[in-house]
Amino acid sequence: MQKTSKKNKQEGTSCKERTILPSSKKKEESQEDFVELLPPEVTLKIFNELDVQSLCKAAMTCKSWNRTIENSDHLWKHHCLTVRAVCQREIDFDRGNGYSWKVTLLRNYWKSKVKHEWLSGKYSNIHSRCGLPEKSMYPMDADTWGEILEAELER
Fold it and tell me: What CDD domains has UniProt attached to this entry (predicted)?
């Protein structure tokens, strides 16, 4: 007889449908989904406290959370503006071309991480390509590499 794990029993359900099975009781208790219970403004304030990775993970939790997060471009704005500190030209270009805050963030998030590492001098003492981690070679345009070169020359 094959034992089914609690995780497998919960897969494919919405937040509202998930159940908790306490070890002492086999009685099912339903969980309430705060997204459906709270006013939208409160829900958005809660989601607004999450970092980018947590927001993406929350969007994968269940359908109601995904719908709320995906339909609220404002949740992504704060994170996008943080990335803008490193990738101002790129963010402004994407926003000028009509991309949403979320799409703009997704297009520039990893680039901003790598660019920040280069600009902060993390790779200044590496003398050959072999010494660079693979992620340091994120595709960047000539203007970005020009910024990095200028920062290196100033060090």
Answer: F-box_FBXO48 (cd22113)
